[in-house]
Amino acid sequence: MENQELLYRKENGIAIITMNRPEKRNAMSPAIFQGIATSMEDAVKDEEIRVIILTGTGDAFCAGADVKSMAAGELERREPPPEQPASRAPFTMQFRQCPKPIIAAMNGVAVGVGLDLALACDIRIASDKARFTVGYVRRGMVPAAGSAWYLPRLMGIDQSLKVILTSEMLSAEEAEKLGMVTMVVPHDELESASLEIAEQIAKAPTLAVQAAKRAVYESLELDLEKSLNLTMKLRQGLLRTDDYHESATAFVEKREPTFKGE
């Protein structure tokens, strides 16, 4: 499943989605938006896929929306129809609701909606050549595709407002210190580092991985007691799985477990 602007492949339980407009620095186009949505749907349905990686070709992760398309009027000045969601970035909720972990392998600059795309992922691994800016305010807009929600939770309110209101460009190292990205690696090691983490997750019990992701995100909206109740219910469900029993048996037998996601 691929088009010229969005590449999609699977290997060893990992789905790799690659934005492929290097000449446009992977600026978001209708084909990329649709390709990401379709690829994500396929990866979620495919029981063999346990982890998803999102990356880009060339020297950019995603340089934001296609400015020429905006200037040509493709993004019209009008209120969305009542039956349509307000966000122009449907990936934001699609990523949040995805039960499988999503890793952003940030090979280069991420701007505006391109940064929103990375923030919607669960783990962000950045090349040391990557740079980031929210950028919306400088263009007379408000961050409306996720960064206003994610950044305060990752960086705190004051730092988030600083990078949002100034539209400053951050280096990969600065973004790591602020908590915007998970880790920074040498540019030439980005692919191998991303795959290494994805493979570690793919080898883990699938149901436990998905339950842990659910527990973390749902707990963001809960107080401690309700979070404990949620995680206890999830734990009780996992105790009945074959993978839990395989883990216990393998520990006793001093061997590596073989998980089947059941």
Question: SSE layout and pairings?
Answer:
Layout lengths: L5 E6 L2 E6 L10 H16 L5 E6 L3 E3 L4 H5 L19 H7 L4 E5 L2 E3 L1 H7 L3 E5 L3 E3 L13 H9 L1 H10 L3 E2 H7 L4 E3 L4 H14 L2 H14 L4 H15 L3 H12 L9
Parallel strand pairs: 2-3, 3-5, 4-6, 5-7, 6-8, 7-10
Antiparallel strand pairs: 1-2, 8-9
Helix pairs in contact: 5-6, 9-10
Largest sheet at a glance?
6 strands, mixed
The beta-strand count equals 10
CATH C-level class of the largest domain: Alpha Beta
**Can you give the helix content as a percent range?**
40-55%
Give structural notes.
This protein has 262 residues and is α/β, with parallel strands linked by helices. The protein folds into two domains: 6-203, 2-enoyl-CoA Hydratase, Chain A, domain 1; 206-253, Lyase 2-enoyl-coa Hydratase, Chain  A, domain 2 (Orthogonal Bundle). It is built from eleven helices and ten strands. The protein is globular and about 60 Å long. It starts with 5 loop residues before the first strand and ends in a 9-residue tail after the last helix.
